[in-house]
Amino acid sequence: MSYVDPITLLFASIFTSNIILANFLGTCSFIAISKDLSSSNGLGIAVIVVLVLSSAISWPILHYILIPWNMIYLDLFAYIIVVAAVVQALEMIIERVSPALYMSLGIYLPLIVANCAILGVVLFMEIRNYDYMQALIFGLGSGIGWWLAIILAAAMRKKIDKSNVPAGLKGPGITLITMGLMAMAFVGFSGILRVQ
Amino acid sequence: MSTPTFRQVTKENLSVNNPVIVQVLGICSTLAVTNKVVNTLIMTVGVSLVTAFASFTLSWIRHLIARRVRMIFQVLAITFYVVLFQLILNAFAPEVARSLGPYVGLIITNCIVMGRTETFAPANPPLISWWDGFTSGIGYMAVLVLLSVVREPLAFGTIADFPIFPPQYVSDGYNWTIAIMAPSAFFLVAIIMWVFKTNSLKKEAAAKAAHATGGAV
What we know:
The complex is a heterodimer.
Chain A: H1 6-16, H2 27-33, H3 37-66, H4 75-97, H5 99-105, H6 109-113, H7 116-127, H8 132-162, H9 172-187
Helix pairs in contact in A: 1-8, 3-4, 3-7, 3-8, 4-5, 4-7, 7-8, 8-9
Chain B: H1 6-16, H2 27-32, H3 37-60, H4 70-92, H5 94-100, H6 111-119, H7 126-156, E1 158-159, E2 162-163, H8 168-171, H9 182-216
Antiparallel strand pairs in B: 1-2
């Protein structure tokens, strides 16, 4: 695979291969949470933090433990434990350091374990053979991309709630159509550069 | 709470409470793997079996797990079956495994598996939990196969790699590449939800009307 420099990768992971609008990762919690702008913002920031930390921890585990000891088939176990541990640790640290932040962010943290964006990014890191710098940048970019998508969607849903939607489309239906339109807009970026 | 019968569970999971279009669970993989019928079938079989066996296992040991630590047991049991499925897939269908990419591993965080093992399995005996997991998977399969049957012909002119349009369809560029790209997946799921929900709203209204006239008489 050709080497992708970090800045290109950052741009690509935010816009052209947006983690949710191009790779569909993290859609479940996206649909559930994007009703409300401030919770979307909170969850988005939590996702950025967890993504960067999980990529930072998973990469050494993959390259210094799993590959040398030929235990690559255990990768899923390793990653899911890392993700769960990061979320749990982060929850405890935030609770101790900043109770105010915990109050606003705390309830979203456990949701993140079941967010496929985290595990997906870690698996992409393995499949695409990123080096450590790339893994970190990809984690950060994907997090920012997810945050951007969810606050945009939340802002749009606020307007949509007031408009007259066919009864059968209310709720998840219209949200999916909104996401489809956003995905189309983001496809426009893919003319600029392409990173697989 | 009484244990539901096999028939009730089947009906719930296949139509009334379909995991994808009514409960809106497992949408990530719904959108990602439906570009080819073969991929879709293999993926959904995987989800059905993983959900079924994970539910069975967790229901079997449900009295031994303290409520506080159940999450970690759920995740580990699910991961175990996903790894098993992934190894089998790599051994017998390496090409499909490659084109599904990370999405096989992502069965772990599929909300359907999580949902069934969290809500149904801890409250019911193993056999019915197995059946519940399996039929949830089948309900998921029904929707996904429908999606892939629309998307694959439009994009590649084939269904399950069997050509249904003349070869000029793709070679002369009449094919809709958009059909395998992200936006069309979102739109199609939304349309299926729309049809299904309108239908069930109509039924509800009819039932209410029948009830009202019945009350008046």
